[in-house]
Amino acid sequence: MYSYGMYPDSTNLQELIAQAESGETEVARNGIRQFLQKHPSRLLAWKWLADVAENTRERSGAIRRAQLLAPGDPWVIEAKKHRRPPARQRHTPNHPTTSSNDAASSTTPAKTVSETEWKNENVYEQHANPVYDTPPHDSDREVEENVAAPTEGVHGQQPRWAIWVAATLGAAGIALLATAWQLDSF
Amino acid sequence: MNTRAPRDKWIIVICGTIVLAAYVGIAAIGNTDIYSLTRVLTGKNLGCNLQGIDLSGIHKPEIGLAGADLEYAVLAGANLRDSNFTGAFMRHANLSGANLQNAVLRNAVLNSTNMTDVDLRGADLRGAYLVDADLTGALVTPGQLDSANTLVGATLPDGSRHE
């Protein structure tokens, strides 16, 4: 379907973002697709895939995945209001290129597309490739392209580091208790 | 076979207990449950996939749908009081007129849902995401809405829009 041969080990998201920023959209898109196959929980990558998406379906799917990872993220909130992919050639200096955590970033891609046509659609197929884990769109019609204003004031977002710490501690605790159980400590 | 001293075993048990307590504490501080935790970390829902399911008018109180993927589900007019939707992903779901009294919607993603005239009396909305949700005519208290994670763009019960 897509040739990933050009990207033998596309793990450097920052390079891909730089490519997208410099206007190499297609190269960046394919690289991000490959990157997301290996790192499907990277919010920043989903945001950038939405920004360089080939079509509205891919963009909507990327936004959906971003919303799974960060339902209250300001970028996601704005992104889902607009459905057209952004202009292919552009330079956006405000894009985050150094964050690897992606938590609740409001400085991610600005131009967005809506997904209002998703409403009233039924269950859609689940694909093995996360890039295509999207509901179908009934059309690809042109709509006005909007520039999303940065949103502020979303409160109460859970810090991602705390979640990771909690998960690690929980796993460690369970492992320790399991060890103790095997040692007949109870 | 078991050469470890009893004291070592108890040290391990105590350490494990401390770590578990720390986990519970962090989870409580972060208002996190295992379903939303999984979703945030993996981008996938832990519960069953019920995308687009039509349960309109169903009478099924106390149903357990924690962590379920209920995106685009139709639950209009359903009686789901006392049900558990903890960490459920309910984006674009239609909950209009549903009875969700005392339901647990903790950390649920209710972005862009149609919640007009929904009965949320006693429901737990702590940590819920209500971005662009339509709560027109919903039976819900300001205190409940305040406990939600975000209400950006939501239409409040009185018809006003939350900024």
Structure description:
The complex is a heterodimer of chains A (186) and B (163). In chain A, 40% of the residues lie in helices and 4% in strands. With 186 residues, chain A is mainly alpha-helical. Chain A folds into two domains: 13-154, no CATH class; 156-186. Chain A is elongated and about 60 Å long. The radius of gyration of chain B is 19 Å and the shape is elongated. Chain B is mainly alpha-helical and 163 residues long. Chain B has three helices and no strands. The mean pLDDT of chain B is 89.
Order of strands side by side in the largest beta sheet of chain A? 1-2-3
Q: How big a fraction of the residues of chain A is strand? A: under 5%
Helices of chain B, by number, come to 3
Share of residues in strands of chain B: under 5%
Order of helices and strands of chain B: HHH
Category from helices, strands and their pairing of chain B: mainly alpha
Distance between the termini of chain B: 66 Å
Radius of gyration of chain B: 19 Å
Overall number of structural domains of chain A: 2
Helix segment count of chain A?
6
Mean pLDDT of chain B: 89
Task: Please provide a brief summary of the model.
The complex is a heterodimer of chains A (about 190) and B (about 160). Chain A is mainly alpha-helical and about 190 residues long.
List the helices and strands and how they pair.
The complex is a heterodimer of chains A (186) and B (163).
Chain A: H1 13-21, H2 25-38, H3 43-51, H4 56-69, H5 74-79, E1 81-82, E2 111-114, E3 146-147, H6 160-182
Antiparallel strand pairs in A: 1-2, 2-3
Chain B: H1 6-29, H2 34-42, H3 142-146
Which key phrases capture this entry?
heterodimer; A: 186 residues; mainly alpha; 2 domains; 3-stranded antiparallel sheet; 40% helix; B: 163 residues; Pectate Lyase C-like
